[in-house]
Amino acid sequence: MSQIRPRLPVVGLLARSAVIPAVLLIATNMVMVMFIPVVHMVVVGVAGVLAASCAIAMSHVAARRNDGRAVWIGMAFSVIATMLVIHGLATPGVILPDNGLVQLAGALNLPVCGAILAASGLPMLRRPRRVRLLLRIQFLVIATLAIAGAAALVFSQLIPVVPDPSTVTAELIFGFGAIPLVLLAWRAGRTYLLTRRVSDLIVVEGIVWLTAAQFGLLNFTMMNAAWWAAHGLEVAGIGMVAIPVALDLRHAVASRPLVGDLRAADLVEHEEAYLGGRVRALLVRLGEKDPSTEGHTRRVATLAVAIGERLDLPEGRLRQLALGGLLHDVGKLSVPNEILNKPGRLTDEEFDEIRRHPGAGRRLLTELGGFSPLVLDLVESHHERLDAGGYPNRVPAGDLDLEVRILTVADVYDALTADRVYREAWPAERALALLDDETGRAFDPECVAALRWLVASEQPALSPAPPHREPDPTPLRTRPAAVFGEAAA
Q: SS3 for 231-255, per residue?
């Protein structure tokens, strides 16, 4: 049941984002227009002001937080702003006569800045001690670029018109410049599929629009309406990328769509920011009723998404797994406290009451509305087993989604390795041994193997997985101390 991460969701997202700019460029191509040169200067100036404002905000946040990646992103927008100023001032017929600087600055702006932004994911930028150095580099880069730009403006008439639109040189510049922009769009797309935040979607679309703008600027002339449309896409794209990122950096749990390092575990850690206020409210209620259950759900959700990542689940399904993991025990809100916190073994009647919580959880989430069928299944089916020996519906293996199998393994492992009111926590090796013993009958082999790999990566001394053996035919509920039944509850 090994999974291969499908790429189509991200590809489809990028394709949808490209529809508007593609239609705009096609519709305006071959339409001849004539605007006075100052219009070009104003359009470019608006883009420069946007980029400069966001660059200042990002640099301020970076210095305050000691955040190297924010400095780097701020530097990219500082470069965009500086090159746009040069591009705007070089507009022929306003301050300067005809010159090649306006074409050169416009052609290189997005490729250079896209490459800087694409490098924002480098691990070295996470080191706080590099922030001061990066701020100095940012100042040096902008100062050097400004001096070079001023010199180029003075001698602008000596600069040839390079590249000519629609030439091989122009296409090569577009090809190389599009590579970092596509990388950024891919990162942002994967982030959006995890967070489902509108701001992250806007960043995705903004990067795609910038890519289309770069194509238009390199393939059309000033007399073509598509060239002006490309400038409009550039202004809009800069705003669509810079503003959400700058606002995001103000918060402690920014998603960083340009960096692309958001993981499913972050959804669990910051559930209110990424999964919504309703999830947070339910967890608060669960914590007020039983703090140990609330802590258990967080650990299970974190472990489940780690297993899901190990098995290459796509981002959308990881998000559903995070939601289901956090809410899988929400049905325990209906279980009496004296049963939840009983220090001894449960009676059959008490265990029957516990066994009702998956169905109660599904009914509660259904009444609230807005939760996907997969999340509802995760809540209702996390105690089901491959051999249809689980509860509440005795669902057979063929009807259990991989996410349910993952959650089941994570739930049982955490229940066994955490202290309970009726027993002490088991060592990891002992808990894994029980899971190994039931692999193939109660638990999915790949999920257990992924769990063992994750535990071993944190505990190197842990012994490797034992050779496969036939599962013990003894019913789980009759094992010594009924550990499985009570722990999994």
A: HHHHHHHHHHHHHHHHHHCCCCCCC
Q: Which tokens go with 118?
A: 């694409």
Tokens, residue 452: 């063992």
* pTM score, whole prediction: 0.85
Kindly give the interhelix angle for 225-248 and 37-65, rounded to the nearest 10 degrees: 20
Tell me how far apart the terminal alpha carbons of the chain are, to the nearest angstrom.
Answer: 27
Q: Cβ distance 248 to 254 under 8 Å?
A: yes
User: Which of these, 286, 282, 249, 255, lies nearest to 270 by C-alpha position?
Assistant: 255
Q: What six digits make up the tokens of 479?
A: 């094992």
- Report the C-alpha gap between 464 and 467 in whole angstroms: 9
* pLDDT tens by residue, the chain, 489 residues: 444 444 578 999 999 999 999 999 999 998 999 889 999 999 999 999 999 998 888 888 877 878 888 888 989 999 999 999 999 999 999 999 988 999 899 989 999 999 999 988 887 776 656 778 888 888 999 999 999 999 999 999 889 888 888 899 999 999 999 999 999 999 999 999 999 999 999 999 999 999 999 999 999 988 899 999 999 999 999 999 999 988 887 765 556 788 888 889 999 988 888 898 899 999 999 999 988 888 999 999 999 999 999 999 999 999 999 999 999 999 999 998 888 878 778 888 888 998 999 999 999 999 999 999 999 999 999 999 999 999 999 998 888 999 999 999 999 999 999 877 667 889 999 999 999 999 999 999 999 999 999 999 877 655 555 544 444 444 433 333 334 444 445
- Distance between CA atoms of 476 and 481, rounded to whole angstroms? 10
User: 435 and 458 in contact (C-beta within 8 Å)?
Assistant: no
CA-closest candidate to residue 42, choices 80, 78, 91, 82: 91
Helix (H, G, I), strand (E, B) or coil at 443: strand
DSSP 97: -
**Scanning the structure block, which residue is given the tokens 């944190």?**
458
For the record, the structure tokens of 158 come out as: 């000596």
Q: Are 406 and 307 within 8 A, CB to CB?
A: yes
Residues in contact with 6: Cβ distance below 8 Å, sequence separation at least 6, in sequence order: 314
b/e for 361-384, b at 16 or more Cβ within 10 A?
A: bbebbeeeeebeebbbbbbbbbbb
Cβ atoms of 331 and 362 closer than 8 Å: yes
Strand partners, 96: 92
Amino acid (1-letter code) at residue 324: G
d(CA 209, CA 489): 51
Contact 333, 24 (CB under 8 A): no
Q: How far, in Å, are 98, 109, 205, 456 from residue 406 at the CA level?
A: 65, 47, 33, 17
Distance between CA atoms of residues 6 and 327, nearest Å: 26
Contact indicator for 124, 139 with CB cutoff of 8 Å: no
